[in-house]
Write a structure and sequence with these properties.
By secondary structure, the protein is α+β, with helices and mostly antiparallel strands. It has two domains: 7-167, Sandwich (Jelly Rolls), CATH 2.60.120; 170-252, Orthogonal Bundle (Arc Repressor Mutant, subunit A). 46% of the residues lie in helices and 19% in strands. It has ten helices and eleven strands. The strands form three sheets. It has a four-stranded antiparallel β-sheet with strand order 1-8-3-6. Helix 1 packs across helix 2.
Amino acid sequence: MVAVIPKSDREIIQRELIAQSLSKIFLLSGLNKKQITQIASISKILKPKKKETIFQEGDEYKGFYCIAEGIIKIFRLTKEGKERIIHILHSNETFAEVPLLENYNKIMNNEAKYPANAMNICEGTRLIFIPAKEFIEVLRMYPEMCFGLFTVLSKKLRMMQEQIVNVKSRDVTGRLVNYLLSEYETKKAIEGCKNIKHSNTFQLSVSKIDLASYIGATLETLSRTFKKLQNEKLIKIWGKNITIIDYNGLKKLI
């Protein structure tokens, strides 16, 4: 006979699991355990399917999301209906938090809107949804939490400013190499945490069409740039698998 876990116990277990995931989120890294637990109590876990839309530009703003596991793309559509990718986000990152900070009055009056589209692009994604109004109420109850958030947000703003400067000063090759090395370093860090033997091979987490859009290039230019890097024996490519052959050589390109 299978033991049935009481509903109250299941809720406690889920809240603890959510709190564990939230403690790894950069945006919330300035908060203590008690504050994280308070946010976990108003949050819920979502498991979107691959290619499922999380929200669309213009939808009523309900709250923001933390990626416990998975990959989310944030994009807008041009007048011609073409996707323009703004961000590709991975585990432990957040999205849709900006309207929460910009439109307090609009949120309370149900007038705030999502400024872009969000879509899940991989299998096994787990999101934590934090509702905006409830989050604001938590901040009202524990105003000291604001200082922790402000500290992290200022760091994030500085990082984004540096990223914008770096991207603007790079050509397509530099932008592609920067993306590849970022993916490689992320895989290396995950393997280190899991005690997995490290290899120089990783798999692209996005399609080449999405990658081209993300770095601001055409698919043809992306293909030529990949071929150039391979011909120069900096990387090796087969399908979506990339092997880093000359790490230092790639670093010199950015």
